[in-house]
Amino acid sequence: MNEISVFWFRRDLRIEDNVGLFAALSSPYPILPIFIFDPIILDKLENKKDARVEFIHQSLIQLKKEIKKRGGDLVVIHEKPFEAFHRLAQQFHIKQIYSNHDYESYAIARDASIQQWAESQGIGFYSYKDQVIFEKNEVLTGQNTPYTVFSPYSRKWKEKLANTEWRQFESENLINYLKASFELPSLNQLGFQATGLKFPSLTFSDELILHYQVNRNFPGLDATSHVSVHLRFGTISIRKLVKRALGKSETWLNELIWRDFYFNITFHFPYISQGIAFRKEYDRMNWRNNEQEFEAWKNGQTGYPIVDAGMRELNQTGFMHNRVRMIVASFLVKHLLIDWRWGEAYFAEKLLDFDFSSNNGGWQWAAGSGCDAAPYFRVFNPYLQTQKFDKDLTYIRKWVPEFQEFHYPKPIVDHEFARKRVLTAYKEALG
Hints:
By secondary structure, this protein is an alpha/beta fold.
């Protein structure tokens, strides 16, 4: 049997500037790159036209081409990770396994079990920081505790960046791959179907970054990079994006730092992965949880055009503008008094760029229950938000063309009534 090292692709589906791949390709053994479609994850996806699975599949096709150009090939496996590695160990003499860190609870437990098995077999297991700039305990307060407020975290983050030698890793220039050829299972063989969605391009202009601070809040403008899905699945390097941001836009850089911040929260406060509010006292809230109103919100039929536009954009494209994400989240929690976890779960199902850390952080921000959250008494007024950010109704006309028609639904709840109701509910819950 060939002596090999394995590189396990997960949230890092690229050849370029990939830390773990660079380390693997620098090792003495030829590299067998693998990707595992994990049934434990896939079986939870009820919609078999899941755009994220399709995006991963398309990214793997591209990844496979890049590896083949360098003399190797990608093995794509559809089985539980432990079983996949056990079977590979029967086919190859595996000397080392390389990967990049993942920070979610399931991934941490999965990796620990694979590492334990590997070491019991005399196989080295190596994991690297790749999808963030700073992780775990690298950015802490003066008391060596994790930051739970963004502003001081971002200041420390920038200070650390300025005083750290960091570089991009030229993994794309190394060619130490095992010479072999493998079939890639089709989307249908994985039990999924094509969605027909058009996925965002990896390319965007420096001009967009330079004007980001001015234009980012206006959903009617195409003024955001749409890079979040590529960051989510690692088809682009975070180091490359930070390098582009420096000196061009502090605001755009801050958005990248928010991502590190939420990963940091997930790592240090793992209980949030179990559906518990970051501020646990907020779990005393008495939610109304009206299922008919939840359906109206999901389907973009609330009678509030800016809310409905956001939900229709999400349902049709898998994307929603960030300003509108805040508006629709606030509306669900504050106007309808529906548990933020319902909205979190719906976004998790629909968002192409779904990432647990950022999604949970955003929903808890809207509910007032998260770290560095909006205070509970801040209730977004959808009409004022429209006046400020979609004054010409460009965004609304695109997604809710019938908003002035007779058959468009009346508002599901009166704003002032909803505002008073939710403030009373929060005061009762929080004492």
